[in-house]
Design brief:
- Two copies of one chain form a homodimer.
- In chain A, strand 9 and strand 10 form a beta hairpin.
- The first copy, chain A, has nine helices and ten strands.
- At the A-B interface, strand 5, helix 3, helix 4, helix 5 and helix 7 of A face strand 5, helix 3, helix 4, helix 5 and helix 7 of B.
- The first copy, chain A, binds a DNA duplex (30 and 30 nucleotides) through helix 8.
Chain lengths: 244, 244
DNA sequence: CGTGCCCTTGAGTACAATCAACGTTCGTGG
DNA sequence: CCACGAACGTTGATTGTACTCAAGGGCACG
């Protein structure tokens, strides 16, 4: 059931059979959500966390005048509200972007397992540290990249993260979001988002539409974006066993 | 020595005498740095982490054309590269903004302590989750707030975080940064930063200069910024003991 | 065959960048 | 003691990026 989560873990660390068994033991319930639902509200006390098995979700911050900012995109394999294990509630909302399937774990089980398996605790901690690294990459995009470069960076990130869990097909991958969603990621208007995407298409870097993206020239896209995948910690620094 | 770190911890959780003793035991070395030094370089393997005792530091991302983005501001009490304990290196640089004093802990000691004291492990994990929450607030500022509101939010955040560790004097606090640094936080030019600060002054919200900030009307500043301190987890959600 | 959602395009506006210059302060050295 | 330079803050003028407003087209769904 949680194979995709294990794939994400094993992209950075070795996971023993025993550890796998333990994780499968606590992530033993499943829940489904429809697209376009707010599934976690900010400030509400939580006593369980969810691992995304299928679909796409986003962290969202709403502002008073109806403005919306997407804070992170979550893909299958992401433990979407693991940080609630230590924070006890979220500072933001979680929304489904597509129909989703989640594995559920109680914080009580997480507590037991992390106390008995400190190395697993570090692997889980690592996952939340990865989210922070992704946030930092987005800060850089919002602050110092042009609209076109910011989108280029976003698509490089998504492609790389989906590759890890085996959810790309060649150069293509699903992306069930509207241009309004993309605008709320990049902090732009929908109109300007549309024009920036057209610029990427015109430059022959990618195709986008119908909930699908196809990267036509990843190297060039990465250059436009100044994309350095180091922040996703797939390299030697995070070789198997290094956090344990 | 690490009193300021304990004050930060105790703003959110109870810390027992035993836990305090353990933390003092491993954070037992001190190191000093001069202002304007890069003290951690991205991608370099680390086997110890540092807790800021005095001064100001920033996480920094440099781009190829010399552009610079500040990713987070760190104050006394912040465990500036604690995430390196699980990540094993950083995806960004750490720079001192002022002369700084740090307490050092080896990852070996962190591993021993977190394995023997799972509740301390969760309190430390919580600190890194807080950093992520701060990143998200910055994403929102960069994406959807006006320049003036973004700065208002920043000053509300710093004031609140410094209050926690007792480093404000009434409505004022030290902020040893140039307007160029502030520009690199907000993703703006130095010129526009200057004008935005003037707008805040003209509105009677604050005074800023000579490395000092004085908030003249916090309520109004918070309103301009849409500042909701929930993301700093000081409320009932994180009442003493709740993460343990 | 409407209706609504999404994408696209054009025209005018506003916020922020760039370029350039100048004042102030402070530390240094003649 | 004063000349000098460097770093920082401030201001004006111009350019450009991105926003807003408005309208129209394609497509799916009832």
């Amino acid at each position: 059931m949680i194979d995709v989560f294990l794939r994400k873990l094993r992209a950075r660390h070795a996971v023993s059979d025993e550890e796998e068994r333990v994780l499968r033991g606590i992530l033993n319930r499943e829940r489904r959500f429809e697209a376009r639902q707010t599934i976690v509200h900010p400030g509400v006390p939580l006593n369980e966390s969810m691992c995304l098995l299928e679909g796409f979700t986003g962290r969202v911050q709403m502002l008073k005048d109806g403005e919306r900012q997407l804070l992170e995109l979550n893909l299958a394999g992401d433990f979407v509200d693991l940080h609630a294990f230590v924070l006890k509630s979220l500072d933001h909302a979680l929304e489904t972007l597509s129909d989703c399937r989640m594995a559920i774990v109680s914080h009580a089980d997480l507590q037991t397992v992390t106390e008995q398996h400190p190395r697993l605790a570090r692997l889980l901690w690592f996952q939340t540290a990865l989210d922070a690294a992704i946030h930092r990459a987005w800060v850089t995009s919002l602050g110092r990249r042009t609209a076109m470069a910011a989108f280029a960076h976003l698509f490089c990130e998504i492609k790389t993260r989906l590759d890890i869990v085996g959810l790309t097909s060649g150069d293509g991958f699903p992306l069930p979001m509207t241009q309004c969603d993309l605008a709320d990621i990049a902090g732009l208007s929908a109109v300007h988002t549309n024009r920036s995407l057209q610029a990427l298409r015109a430059a022959g870097l990618l195709k986008i539409g119908q909930g699908q993206v196809e990267i036509l020239d990843f190297a060039k896209l990465a250059k436009v974006a100044e994309f350095d995948p180091g922040y996703l910690f797939l390299g030697d620094n995070a070789a198997p066993g290094s956090a344990g």
